[in-house]
Design goal:
This protein is an alpha+beta fold. It has three domains: about 1-155, PAS domain (Beta-Lactamase, 2-Layer Sandwich), CATH 3.30.450.20; about 210-310, Helix Hairpins, CATH 1.10.287.130; about 315-465, Histidine kinase-like ATPase, C-terminal domain (Heat Shock Protein 90), CATH 3.30.565.10. It has helices spanning about 1-55, 60-70, 105-115, 155-200, 215-270, 280-310, 325-340, 360-375, 405-410, 420-425, 435-445, and strands at about 80-85, 90, 115-125, 130-135, 145-150, 320, 345-350, 355, 380-390, 390-400, 445-455, 455-465. The strands form three sheets. It has a five-stranded antiparallel beta sheet with strand order 2-1-5-4-3. It has a five-stranded mixed beta sheet with strand order 7-9-10-12-11, with helices on one face. It has a two-stranded antiparallel ribbon with strand order 6-8. Helix 1 (about 1-55) packs antiparallel against helix 4 (about 155-200), helix 6 (about 280-310) packs parallel to helix 11 (about 435-445) and helix 8 (about 360-375) runs antiparallel to helix 11 (about 435-445). The chain is extended. The chain starts with a helix and ends in a 10-residue tail after the last strand. About 20% of the residues are buried.
Amino acid sequence: MVVRMRRALLFRFIGVLLLALGISSMITYYFIGNRMLDNNISNMLNTMHVVDYSFDYDVDLQEQLTKLHEISLDKKTRITIIDIDGNVCADSEAETVKTLQNHLEREEIQKALHSSYGYATRYSETLQENMLYVAALSENSHYIIRMSVPYTSILDYMMTIFPFLVIGVCISFLISMVLTFRFTNTITNPLREISEQMEKTNSNQLDFNFKHYKYEELNVISDTTTKMAEEIREHVNQLEFEKKIRQEFFSNASHELKTPITSVKGYAELLDQGFVKDEAMKKDFIARILKETDNMTSLINDILMISRLETKEAEVTFSMIRMSPMITEIFESLEPIAAEYQVTLHQECEPLIIEASTKQLRELVMNLVSNGIKYNQPGGNVWVDVRRLSDNMVVTVKDDGMGISTEDTERVFERFYRVDKGRSKKMGGTGLGLAIVKHIVEFYGGSMNLTSELGKGSIFTIKIPLERNIEEPMD
């Protein structure tokens, strides 16, 4: 078994080395090739700008180009002057431009017409070699200047150094094999001992006995294995708990949806069968159907939001949020409800800015304040205080309403849990508001505290780090 493991490690090491060499070669080829191409294009553009500035487009272009090419340009460099319709007006290589085809459809010309300059590489049948073509719009007139030069790609250079690369790879293989043989001997024996101990789990024996090994990584394996039994037990318990939560969630969700669906179906059947003749009653039934569908829509949206927050799949757009204007906006939105319940809203907010999701923070504060209004009494108050404490933003929402009992305080953040079920139903609550608050706070790595007393009100204290502390979802 040790021999097979050593051989496997050797082959894998060689495979990784080959892969690394291949990837590094491709990356080198790509970046060096692009850099060479960019440098060539940049140099050609500079030359073309000089040509452009030196030209007088009101006189004979061919004569000017011929003189310029003889004086200052390399013999392998070809310059072509083209009008915006693609017609060749002058060319440093052609004896007469009348014999040249229209260049409008050439790749580099099309790119130049759309983005001031363009380039293309292709094989020249005339010169029997690859050519680089660069075209740029003239700054002095309605013309396009195109330059072409022989183009040697990075692949041509790579073929020159290929024999040396092969020699280097062979030497690397030899050295790697020697080092791998020596290295595997220090690993295979401890791994064999660890595997023998781990086989005890097949017979439900959890009394592992590991040595202290040379490599700390092997000690980590042994320590992890020692803790494995307890972690397995905890994991099983957690799975059972989550299974119970899911069952309760689906049961509650089904129950919450069943009632409005039954109501909507009943009203719809009465309307469909023509039992309701009075127009006022028909409008009342339709209004009730719409209200129930709105409640179902709110419930489904809340369920989806909690699901996305739990799985870290919420699409979050972060921005710098000024908390004071946000609280003012929330108060303005809730003012009609506050007036209906005869509750006064108060705010005290430090000039605080936090990077977060506007939608999520608004949802958090909105749920807490609306609960403070709805579970209050005429003449009651709701206070919102926002301030900085160390590296955290602390949001405190306080009311002097009906309060929550100690028993209910421990469960109000559960999904679909209502302190006063009859009153919550009457006010159209989904029973998910505080559950959403809890998940938003957890999403930002924050903490939450609730203190309440029956008949005297409740205080919700939310603490959220000012610096983002969010685990990104894995792809």
